[in-house]
Amino acid sequence: MTNDEIKELMVKGQRDGAQLHRVADVIYKVSIVLNFIIGIVGVILFFVAMSSEGIRLALVVGIATAVICAIGYALAVLGSNGAKVLVHLLFANLAILDKHREQQ
Fold first, then answer.
1. By residue range, what is the domain housing residue 51?
2. Residue 52 domain-assigned?
């Protein structure tokens, strides 16, 4: 590879990495908002179930809501952090490539 090709690859990698980082942040924020909405709906359904069916169904609804929210939060965190780790690996590799290019 020529120096121009390496420089072009580094610029493109930095641009794509920054875009992936922004997308990961947006996906995380949207997932958290959806998780919050699911939690609110679960609380409302908990009170509706308690007033109409009793404590047993209300507890089932409450536990199901807590499990769904916990799984949703875990997926949001793991998904967004996984993408961010990929971006950091990309930037580290680009820095190594740039340092190696400067030494030659």
1. 16-99
2. yes
Enter the tokens of residue 29: 């924020």
**Spans in the chain with pLDDT lower than 70:** 1
How far apart (Å, rounded) are the C-alpha atoms in residues 62 and 42?
Answer: 7
- The H or E element that residue 10 is part of is helix 3-52
Domain count, the chain: 1
pTM of the model: 0.73
pLDDT digits (tens, 9 = 90+) for 50-68: 999 889 999 999 999 999 9
Residue at token pair 């690859």: 9
Both tokens of 48, joined, read 């509706």
Cα separation, 75 vs 79, in Å, equals 6
Is 35 inside any structural domain?
yes
